[in-house]
Amino acid sequence: MAVLLAMLATEAQAQSQPPGAEAGRNAGDTQQPAQQVYRFDLPEQPLLHSLGEFTGITNISVLRPDARAIDGTAPALSGEMTADQALRGLLADSGLAIEYRNERTAELVEPQPATMTTVGDQVGLDTLTVEADRIGDDWVYQEPRSVSVITREQIDRHPPRHIAEILQETSGVNASMNYQTPGLALNIRGMQDFGRVNMMVDGARQNYAISGHQQRNGEAFIDPEFIGDVTIEKGPSASLGSGGTLAGSANFRTVDVNDIVAPGEDRGVRLRGSTGVGKYSQGNDFNGSVVGALRARNDAELLAGYSQMRSGEFRAGSRGQFGRVNYSYNNPRNDSFGNEGDLVAITRQERRSGLLKGSLRLTDTQRLRLSALRSEFEFDTASSSLGYSHPDDIEVFPTSNRVETSTFTLGHEWRPDSNWLAVDTQLYYVDTRNDQELPDRNEGMPDAALPFMPGGFASRTRTETYGLTAENNARFAIPGFDVAWNYGVDLSKDETSPSATGSRETNIDYAGSLERMNPDGERWLGNAFSALRFEHNDWLTLQAGLRYDHYKLKGETEYENPLLPVGQREQYAEADASDGAFSPNFGIAVKPLEHWQLYANWGKSWRPPTITQALVGGDHRYVNDGTRVFPNTNLNPERSDTWEVGSNLIFDDLLFDGDRLRANISYFTTRTKDFMGMAQVCPPRANGNCLTSLQLMGFVNVDSPVDSEGFEIELSYDTGRVYGRASYTDTDMSSNLIYDANTLGENSCQPSNNPRYETTCNSVGLWYYPKPPRQVYTLQLGARAFDQRLDFGLRHRYSSGHKQLLSDVGVYNSTRDGTIQPYNVTDFYAVYAPTDNLRLNLAVDNLRDEAYGIPMGDVQVLSPSPGRTVIAGVEYRF
User: Fold this and answer.
1) Closest Cα partner for 353 from 383, 386, 378?
2) Interval 119-171: pLDDT, tens
3) What is the rounded distance in angstroms from the CA atom of residue 795 to the CA atom of residue 538?
């Protein structure tokens, strides 16, 4: 606050700014700078002068790569408009056109044919036609790194039942999910959970986690109705949001005023609704939202929205077989799922969300932004692999869940008339809680036995995250290079506060056992980062970055060790750990040809343990299972090294006038050391001998490295009338998964009778290992008609399925191993905009009614996907 007051005082004493010095709003958001709205007041003057003032207002550099002089006069420009509209207005009489090299650099080139789509056209059509998609992610193919964008238009073509479905067209990205829970656990290049991937909403970290069977330890609950776009960064970096991660980050930007209010207008409303159709509705009862926004000149903005969704149970596809499950390695049954086409139980969900955003211009160069997002999710879960889809055969005891999640942000942006300062700061608070009702599994037992048996439970798991981010973007020149410098800090604090109560009196503290599975504690995570980018004559780019991460974790827990003598079994563990590390990264990119870029990157990453990994110390007795989980307060942080090489291809007018080809191809290899996972352990025991058991679990560092490598391809071709997109991912992960099972106790290690182990302390395997499918691809072919108001096409999805992980020394140990069969699924979509304000859409997913499952699905709930699904929707703006 002191910094803010000082800035205001400085502004009050400063001389008046030059005309047009109004800064664009929401520059800290992931909306691209060319699409942001600014206020301009430029007189008629030499074009070179107007372009200089344009750069000062928008922080978008304007270059002419052929080094020719920029002559001529620019017309007067006044009013509110996007940066792209303003730039094209200044160039209206110049005979020059624009190509964006990246999100902050525009090049002046000879004009393209009249059929070329422009960013201005997109905004003029209010993003209701297919033109928006042609430019929305164009900058991705000009970045010398792996980054993907999911646009709102891509989401609308196939309305998602589960938010993870919006990731299906993105290379290198998977999700661990089932259709019981709406939570998203994002997987990038084989890594997920416990912050290995930073999931954010408007830059605020979503760090909620609940202990289960290790399939989703880190979930974000996000309403797809309010998503503006998603930006996914893959691999290590020194940038905002990269701290404490291994694989990258994903930022879900919520809609803002510019998404709702048309340029030149001061208000706007968006109404949306969709529902399932007839026998193929698949339980999609209703999904809709209303969002309204106001803009008071350029002084203030306000946006408010509400959304609601209701969905019931669905039927699996009727063709083929989607999965098998092994219940025991000693006596594998290979039970297959025989319910293809049957109702998939326990998949009802409800969701309600509210969004409030606003901004206020403090001075000509400063703006204050705030937002509040709250969502409620209601759903049931069960952990039986077969039973939840065969409710008549097996009693499954579903647990009711009510998740409430709130994200509050307060941001400040400062855009003085200087290339050295473009400062964004943000405070945020995220509160996610899950109130669960676990049923009494023993209520039919005799009254005399009930005190010795667990009853039902009311449980709350809660994570609160406090955060502060600050970054500055500076631009300057040194001999031979244009330089961009991004630096800042990212601080966050997680606090967990669980609670549980039983439905009746028992002689054992079953509620405490449940509560300690999600331990109480706090963790601070802070990082400072600095990244420099040097560009030379548009053919050479050099990058260098450095990030320093530091964490501090505190907490305590009680647990019971039944292997010790009576009177010594009650144990206590306290965590008071801290550590830090530097993570450098370097990159180089060259353009051997004008349309072809080659790049290579290397970087390190570092991730510390979470509260759950260090302090989980409960047991499974609340469901009549004697499995014990032991805390490990001595875990080492994970460390990784990543190499990446890739290529970008950008061609215009390749085969036809106005066509566009964009491609990104990359290869990566990552080695992760000290990988943390839950495994069989040897806690201290009376006889001093180490002996592992499936009922003795704890988190360990894996001694052998975890290696992952793969290819990723994203391709887009568009002629205006027809278009195609493709994404391909090939990911291979391998590790011996050898670890020291004696990390928790001072036991003796005896020679092992199992050929897979050298001693009883050397074990192979983790409870769950997030291995993605080896190959995944999507192919999309679409066309536009009726003056491009109709957009229709087909999308084909393929996955090679999921099989158990094999190490060099044997099969990893797990209580259950699911095998998801490969699948080929085809979808249809059509979007028609009869007017600029009205859009109608129809989606038919799984045209052939295939039985298929999610390859990264829950280890305990191998979830079938819906069969043939027909959804119709409408969107109206005014």
Assistant:
1) 378
2) 333 333 232 222 333 345 678 898 999 999 999 999 999 999 999 999 999 99
3) 36
HEC profile of 20-71: CCCCCCCCCCCCCHHHCEEEEEECCEEHHHHHHHHHHHHCCEEECCCCCCCC
Find out whether 599 and 543 touch, Cβ atoms under 8 Å: no
Burial class of residue 458, CB neighbours in 10 A (0-12, 13-18, 19+): middle
Token digits for 599? 């790049």
Q: Which residues contact 233 (CB under 8 A, 6 or more apart)?
A: 145, 146, 147, 239, 241, 242, 248, 249, 250
The span from the CA of 100 to the CA of 94, in Å, is 18
Residue spans of the chain under pLDDT 70: 1-32, 65-69, 101-102, 110-137, 213-215, 322-341, 383-395, 624, 756, 803-819, 855-862
Instruction: Specify whether the CB–CB gap between 797 and 168 falls below 8 A.
Output: yes
Please check whether residue 842 is in contact with residue 829, taking contact to mean a CB–CB distance below 8 angstroms.
yes
pTM for the model? 0.85
- Could you report the per-residue pLDDT of 436-449, keeping only the tens digit for each? 999 888 888 888 88
Q: How many helices (H) and strands (E) does the chain have?
A: 9, 49
Could you give the CA distance from residue 870 to residue 279 in angstroms, rounded to a whole number?
9
What residue type is 400 in one-letter code? S
178 neighbors 859 (Cβ within 8 angstroms): no
In sequence order, what DSSP letters do the residues of 272-312 get, joined into one string? EEEEE-GGG-TTEEEEEEEEEEEEETTTEEEEEEEEEEEE-
Place of tokens 């229709």: 792
pLDDT digits (tens, 9 = 90+) for 475-519: 999 999 999 999 999 999 999 999 999 888 888 888 888 888 899
Sheet bearing 61-63, strands edge to edge:
61-63, 105-109, 97-102
What are the backbone angles phi and psi of residue 754, rounded to the nearest 5°? -85, 125
Give the single-character DSSP code of 220: B
What does DSSP say about strands 197-201 and 248-254: parallel, antiparallel, or unpaired?
parallel
Q: Is the dihedral of CA 375, 379, 383, 386 positive or negative?
A: negative
Residue whose entry in the numeric block shows the structure tokens 């408007």: 202
Q: Please give the DSSP secondary-structure letter assigned to residue 628.
A: E
For residue 2, what are the contacts with CB-CB under 8 A and spacing of at least 6? none
- List helix spans (H) across 471-579: 510-515
